[in-house]
Design a protein that fits this description.
Helix content: 40-55%
Distance between the termini: 35 Å
Order of helices and strands: EHHEEEEEEEHEHHEHHEEEEHHHHH
Shape: globular
Strand content: 5-15%
Number of helices: 12
Number of strands: 14
């Protein structure tokens, strides 16, 4: 088995690095021809920053990533490590989630047997169950479908393989075993119950579209009520005095960044929960922190009832319509909470029991229109690229209007606008790809005669 990084990621890094190098060269030219010491320092500083980013991109492009696995062991050439690991030196190969910021990323770890020392770079060192381990890669970073990787690795690793991610562990079961597992009732083994993405089918796409519309409204408000007033205030302050303009620029930039972070995070968690399949066992509901929150308790979750532990870990209802989860889902949650030794968890279980009687029965939402709804989501998200272009162009034009009379604020705004427009190019390409992918999924669904084809668009960027 040969594992390599996708070519697309290296191409993107190469293009971005080349753009940063060109920007650095341009800034060096500005520094040489600048008529003031402040202008030279400013241009030189940003030139160094652009060179640094270009260097990081070059390291990504030039860095080798070759991981080969066979019956004899592992051959690894990645992240500065070049060596081999025989199966006799490996105690376990572990696939589990690791926390990166607010995300959980499936990653592959190799745990050597006691006494075996591996001279690996610091960034690859990790621990698994308090034992030294090597973090080889995140599963999303290799050109291999995660399920296929686990399945083929199990043939080579045998008993060495330990898959600790529920949905990936299922691929190791036979077809008959998977069918049997899916038929196990929540009452018999509620802690292993898998809560599917909710709402399902076309309602899932409609919920995403509903949330994205509200995020788009917040982004428009951010542009009109934060960015535009900040630019006007910066222009007026700069024309009064350069130092006053610098203060206004820094204050406006800080306000824009803080407000944008609030806009992005308002609906992000809800969007993540709408598309996620969540095992009950992963939510840690028996530690005395479980709480059921009614609609309106948290911003960004619409009309949905929520389950927290104490932070929101599950949608009990549809954020768009308020419709509750299925009877089986709620009963499985209730069973786990009632088994907890903590009073707070059992109280949350009783609240869910009250919701069970309100659960709507009937057939699940139809899936035949999910593809079209997914395409509509991708198209509406692409509209954000227009907003980003307007913001970046406005900042750059504002800087251009000040550059002749302002040695610092004018060039600073031009550079900020240029960086935003560069980011806009990348974002626009990503959104075009998302639209094309949604069109392809809709086409594939038509060819399969209406059989289920995932309509979930690529993960949203902030």
């Amino acid at each position: 088995m040969k594992l390599r990084r996708p070519v697309g990621s290296r191409v993107f890094s190469a293009v971005f690095g080349a753009a940063m190098l060109a920007l650095a060269i341009h800034l060096v030219g500005l520094a040489v021809t600048a008529g003031s010491i402040g202008g030279r320092i400013f241009s030189g500083f940003w030139a160094l920053m652009a060179l640094f980013v270009a260097g990081v991109s070059a390291r990504t492009v030039m860095g080798r990533f070759e991981v080969d696995v066979d019956r004899t062991g592992w051959s690894v050439r990645a992240n500065g490590f070049d060596g081999t690991l025989r199966w006799a030196e490996i105690s376990a190969v572990v696939v589990q989630n690791r926390v990166v910021g607010r995300r959980l990323l499936p990653a592959l770890y190799v745990v050597p047997v006691p006494g075996v020392s591996l001279d690996v770079p610091e960034e690859m060192r990790a621990t698994v169950d308090d034992r030294p381990a090597v973090l080889l890669f995140d599963l999303e970073d290799v050109k291999y479908e995660a399920g296929a990787l686990v399945r083929e690795l199990s043939d080579l690793a045998g008993d060495h393989l330990d898959v600790r991610i529920y949905h990936l562990s299922l691929v190791l079961l036979s077809d008959a075993a998977r069918v049997r597992l899916s038929e196990v009732s929540a009452e018999s083994r509620p802690e292993n119950y898998l809560l599917r993405a909710f709402p399902s089918g076309v309602d899932n796409a409609r919920a995403q579209r509903w949330l994205n519309r509200r995020r788009s409204g917040l982004l428009a408000g951010w542009c009109l009520l934060v960015v535009l007033p900040a630019l006007v205030l910066t222009v007026l302050a700069t024309r009064t005095h350069e130092l006053l303009g610098v203060a206004a620029l820094l204050a406006g930039l800080t306000a824009a960044v803080v407000a944008y972070d609030q806009v992005v995070t308002t609906f992000s968690r809800c969007l993540d929960l709408v598309v996620a399949d969540i095992p009950i066992s992963s939510m840690q509901l028996t530690k005395g922190t479980a709480v059921v929150l009614p609609p309106g308790s948290k911003r960004g979750y619409g009309k949905a009832w929520l389950l927290g532990a104490p932070h929101v870990v599950l949608l009990l209802g549809d954020p768009r319509t308020g419709r509750l989860r299925s009877y089986d889902d709620l009963r499985a949650l209730s069973a786990v909470l009632h088994e907890s030794p903590e009073d707070a968890d059992r109280a949350a279980g009783r609240q869910i029991d009250e919701l069970v009687v309100q659960t709507q029965t009937g057939d699940p939402p139809a899936e035949d229109a999910a593809g079209a709804a997914g395409l509509w989501i991708a198209v509406t998200k692409a509209g954000r690229a227009v907003l980003w272009f307007v913001v970046g162009a406005s900042v750059m034009l504002t800087g251009g209007s000040l550059v002749e009379n302002s040695p610092f604020v004018g060039p600073a705004l031009i550079i900020i606008g240029g960086v935003m427009l560069l980011g806009w190019v990348v974002y626009a390409l990503y959104r075009v790809y998302a639209v094309l992918a949604a069109v392809w999924r809709l086409y594939a669904a038509g060819r399969t005669g209406g059989r289920r084809v995932s309509a979930t668009p690529p993960t949203d960027l902030p």
